[in-house]
Design brief:
The chain has a domain at about 10-65. The radius of gyration is 23 Å and the shape is elongated. Helix content is about 80%, strand content about 0%. It is built from three helices and no strands. The protein is mainly alpha-helical.
């Protein structure tokens, strides 16, 4: 089913330029790519929201650790990575 969309002049010009320069073969190809990117972003946002909800539920159950403990572990990991990179070079 064909779809009609009013993109406005700036976006219309940009789509036209992408086709004119050969980056895309048609205006439809540009729009399909755009919709695909929106789908990917929405899927990532849904996953992020799921993880946030999971973290909140874990905290509500008492399944959490003090931030200072987590940050100390992260600092130690980063320092170890830096030391490894220094020794490899």
């Amino acid at each position: 089913m064909p779809v009609s969309a009013d993109l406005g002049k700036p976006l219309e010009d940009y789509v036209g330029e992408l086709v004119k320069t050969g980056r895309y073969r048609s205006r439809s190809e540009v729009l399909r790519e755009g919709v695909r990117l929106v789908q990917e972003r929405e899927a990532k946002l849904a996953e992020l929201r799921r993880k946030i909800d999971e973290g909140i539920a874990a905290a509500d159950r008492g399944d959490s650790r003090p931030a200072e403990e987590v940050f100390a572990e992260l600092r130690a990991e980063i320092l170890a990575m830096k030391e490894k990179a220094r020794n490899a070079g």
